[in-house]
Amino acid sequence: MHILAKSRHVFETIESLIGIKNSAVPLSWGEFYQAELKSKNDFLIVELEQLIEMSDSVTAQLNTYLAVIVLVTQGPSSKADELVEKCRKLIGVYHLPLVEREKSLFAHQLQLLATMVEEKKNLKQQMVKFSEEIDFLVQSAESEMLKAKRIHESVVPKRVEEFKGITLMSKYAVGSGSGSEYFDLIRGSHQSHLIIIHTSSYLASSSLMGIINKYKGENSGLNFDLFMNEAEIELQAINANKKKPVRVEMFLMTIHNLDLSCSGYSYGSFDLISRKESKRLPSVESFRLENKAQAYFEFQLSREEKVIVFSPGFIFNWKEQLPQVSLNDFAHRGLEGENGDLLVELFFQLKKKLKDDFLSKDATAIVMEVKRHAIQKV
Question: In terms of domains, do 226 and 349 share one?
């Protein structure tokens, strides 16, 4: 327990009821007032007269404790009434000296609070041990996932999709780092949706993939607003018990079949390069729903245009493996047809200096080529 008091009467009262020599932490006003505003796994006994002021800052500090009990040593005070109104952790106000009935009630409260604090400490220790066991299982799962990703890369070396005047080609390479990248194309009746997700957690990736899969086969395709709302809730649940929050980067783009207009959201270090004109993506660090407006983009595709999208993993690996080579310049030459099969050449350059088969992170690159006779917005 923490005690904010100066009166000997306060300490003697508490010690006579349960003893405090080994468990109490006396606080000065300065230590109490300047303490970090974070949840504390302990309760506070405060001598009312030691609360020099009753500001919002003081109330905020009081509310960081599991519970607060106030002891009044100098007669009635309006501060006590104010505390009852403001402090949601206040569970009792006692005037000293205590009568016999109050002594029993106060002692019961102290014993109960001390038991709660001890149980929370034990639970935290159990959770730490459980977390260590989970980490071991995750490491084992990551090893198996790495094998699965390697098989996927060899079985599906290059993916080609055709839809409404556009040819989409994508290529993926596996990385040895934690987390993963996921790419998919979902078709609606009047639009197609391109999704790339890069996360630092396999659990986050699989959860987001599960949400996306619900929309497959729907006439309207993928509703970005609904998906992002669900993703935010899912990630909050995943992060609830993590010391380091999961990082999620995502690229969501809708291609409207009738006029080739494109719109969507880009969270993270994606890059989009066009053969015809500059198309800048927003600079938003990672996925957070509150940054939705800043992440929004839109542009227009035209006939015979060629566009390539690089994932965060691809960009990271390129900087690591080819720090002296401009990815932007290399991609522009490839889009002009100077490098043969651009995707094959990009991944050859990315992996030619590797000492083993794995990049540091998963990498994805996608080329979209608009056909000559595609419908275009006028």
Answer: yes
